[in-house]
Design brief:
six-stranded antiparallel beta sheet
Amino acid sequence: MAAKEPKKYSAPALEKGLDIIELLSAHSSTLSISDIAEHLGRTNAEIYRMILVLEQRGYLVKSKHADGYQITRKLLQLGTEQEPVKDVLEHARVVMPRLANITSMACHIAVESQEQIVVISSVETPASLSYSVRVGYRRPIIQSASGKVIFGFQNAEKKEAMMSILERHHSKAELTAFLTECKKVVKQGYFIGESGFVKAVTDISVPIFDGDQVVAALTIPFIERTPEKMPIKQVVEELKKAGEFISKSLTYGLLK
């Protein structure tokens, strides 16, 4: 991992609060005050008041089932009120349930968030058996289907900006492998491949465009079922149609 750039300005209290939020967002489990202090190399006393303020403001919540805190969806909610994320959600709200009904598969939309992707919308299928990803789920861009789609189909200017961030978090070897995979995705027109995190799940992902810029990825975590509801090739086609419809809606203002 490349070294971080030296800081030009310092706001210790703010940095402490952001460190706590970033730490908890990277952990799926709860962390106690002692855990947080240990991870951040600070004392319990330094962390305690910060935790209380963040809890009062709704960014953290105390777990009901364990001794610790976890991050809420407040930051995600604030983010979804901004353009173009708000537009993506607006134009996808009809398309995603329809896609889930047709394919009998859950689907979700993810956007770029620094060096990660974050799921901003998820729709379950009425089928009794499926696999879904919760809203707020995060993964490194270079390790996710959504990330490869968002980067691969991006315009040159945006790619350069994304690379400057990714280079601070990943080695040259990791980025070289990532770029090779992205080229394959672009050539094929979509991503399809085994999930790197869940066995027996095949991720299928397509880009969502606003003009010439990719603003999100629409993904189906496909699972094989017996009897088969819809063959994977047909699921791919339905996903592509849904992605194209949302893209045209964003670009041209269509929503029907």
